[in-house]
Each structure stands twice: as C-alpha cells, then as structure tokens.
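Translate sequence into structure tokens.
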Amino acid sequence: MSQPGSAASALESAHGRVAKEILEEIGSAFARANEKVDVALQALERARASLAAERSAERVAAFNKARACAANAIWELRVHREALGMVDHRQHEEGWKLPDPA
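Result follows.
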C-alpha cells in the first residue's frame, strides 16, 4: 500500500477511477443492448399485427425487415452476454424466439 500523497497513491487512485468508469460503461452498454432487443421485438410485434390485419408485399417486407433487425439485436446481446461470462441463455430463449419469415 502506498503512502498517502505519494505518486504511487495518486496512480492507484487514478486507476481506481478509471476502473470504475469502465465498469459503469460496461453496465450502460449492456443495458443499451437489452433495450435494443426490447425495442426491436416491439417493432416486430407491430409489424406482425400489421401483416395479420392486411397481407401485402409492403407489409411482408416490413415484417421481414423488423424480424432481421430483431435477430441482429438478439445476436448482439448474446455476444455481449458471452463477453461478460453469461453463456447460459436458456432463461431468455423463449423471449428471444422469432417467428418464421413471412
């Protein structure tokens, strides 16, 4: 342990602040990845409902685009979870299940 006021103490303090900022950013990025999945799944549900109300080429395309966006957001969240050591996704699999393309 360094003596208070020493250069080593200042370095340890700076290191602690940087480590705290990094952990805060990791947490924020993880929250953003989760939110991105939620938003994408909500958009997919809206596109599904629209397609169910009236099937048209435009709505099929919108549904498939929303599905692709949701699949990408889920993949990004999965990668983020795995980078943080969360490799068991079983509890999320049902919520991440996507409908077949239209």
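Note: Residues 7-96 form a domain with the Methane Monooxygenase Hydroxylase; Chain G, domain 1 fold (CATH 1.20.58).
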